[in-house]
Amino acid sequence: MESELKDLNSKQLKSTASSDDGGSAKDDRPLLKPDAADNIQELEKKFAPYVRNDVYGTMGRGELPLAEKFLIGIAMVTLLPIRVVLAMTVLVIYYLICRVCTLFSAPNRGEDEQEDYAHMGGWRRSVVVVTGRFLSRVMLFVLGFYWITETFRILDVQEKSENEAKNQSKDEDEAKDQDEESGRPGAIISNHVSYLDILYHMSSSFPSFVAKRSVAKLPLVGLISKCLGCVYVQRESKSSDFKGVSGVVTERVREAHRDKSAPMMMLFPEGTTTNGDYLLPFKTGAFLARAPVLPVILRYPYQRFSPAWDSISGARHVFFLLCQFVNHIEVTSLPVYHPSQQEKDDPKLYAENVRRLMASEVWISSFTKAELLTSN
């Protein structure tokens, strides 16, 4: 890209020099349209959710202050090697636990080459879940997330009275159905900021995720993902394979809603990571099951390096994260959202209403609340 820009600049300089000298040479440089300023503003607005605003600058390649370079130098020789060793130790320990628990146990095989160990029963499943939640929290501690601020929203008094009035107007059968629905959501809905989101949700509720099919073949992580009950998708493919995976996800959400022993699905309806300051429009895949969902909002406050994985490479992100002495995460869990009949019939409406609720409950940014909510 840099070479292309250099070539472009050199060509422009040559054309400018020739026009100055002879005046007859034709200038083929593209002219800016009258509405170019508006287009630039639209582009800035469009890509604002992916811009890094921390000390490290765009793509983590900005010019660092001398004090920041000094801190990184200290962390490289002290904190970085310790964290790498501890993180690998935790990963290997959990892999061995999963290996022992899955011995002599055949994975649950479904359509589209899906297989998992999440439907194991008895002591095997209990050990996988309990140790998985504990070691996920240990991993976050190793990465510098020593404290996690969690806020659990409850219904306001006015909302409670309105719900009670509605329940009284229903007959007994509908009230029973509502009581059954209120017991367990079918999926957890969360904004997506970083791969660290997965570690938090593993430590909190140990749900199943949607992951690339290649993840199942990775050393160590592959078996762990199968114990989580991940649904694998070939994201480069837009054929019937994608539709098949969507059906698997919908069925898993319904199963989790009906059966308390089934693993709950964890879905990121934005479909990609952002810098955490914006909430993108939701895709409807998480809402096709017409089941209640649990909205959860994650934020990563920072002073130096932002843990958001937006426009920075994976290796550079991990390096800077490990070199930061303390990292922070804030979690807001909202009440279970029960869709109305209109929302059940219209997944787009269901998705947009959940998104509006999440944006209104937590101050993500003035742009998100004022403008992004009305955009599609």
From TrEMBL:
Recorded family membership: Belongs to the 1-acyl-sn-glycerol-3-phosphate acyltransferase family.
Name this polypeptide is given: Phospholipid/glycerol acyltransferase domain-containing protein
Compositional bias (Basic and acidic residues): 23-34
Example of a GO cellular component annotation carried by this entry: membrane
Acidic residues bias spans: 171-180
GO molecular function: O-acyltransferase activity
Segments of this protein annotated with the region Disordered: 1-34, 163-186
Keyword terms: Acyltransferase, Lipid biosynthesis, Lipid metabolism, Membrane, Phospholipid biosynthesis, Phospholipid metabolism, Transferase, Transmembrane, Transmembrane helix
Pathway(s) where this gene product acts: Lipid metabolism
Main location: membrane
Domain of life of the organism encoding this protein: Eukaryota
GO biological process, one term: phospholipid biosynthetic process
Membrane-crossing segments per the record: 70-97, 127-148
Residue span, Phospholipid/glycerol acyltransferase domain: 186-301
Compartment annotation: Membrane
